[in-house]
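Q: Could you fold this chain for me?
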Amino acid sequence: MKNKGIRINNFGLSILAVTVLALCLIVFAMLTLSTAKSSFDHSKMAATHRTQYYEACNTSEEIIGYLSENGDAGLEEWLADKKYDLHVASSGNSYTWSVAIGKNQQLNVAVVLNGVNCDVNKWQTVTIGQ
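A: Sure. Below is the predicted structure, expressed as structure tokens.
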């Protein structure tokens, strides 16, 4: 007579282990996708801000170039021709202006014209309208 022992079925245990493993992989994949999207959005925002800052710097450098070559003669007309929506205030040989950087920042610039040289006294990014 054969001795019948207790039979253990490992089939259910292996399915349970595979299911838990699959769920863990899915959760980690979702976390990775979420992190990647967040990093992409942050990088895109930083690139936009950097581009806006460089545009404001280029505008200010063009104004400094104009002042170095021509002084303030015809400055307002030159600004209108370039379609720059800003005002350059002058006091003697000192000039100040602000260029918008996006919606809530601006670049404040102050220069002193010494002949054909422009000495930059202020080149500052400030937050506005919080």
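A (continued): The first strand starts at residue 89 and ends at 91.
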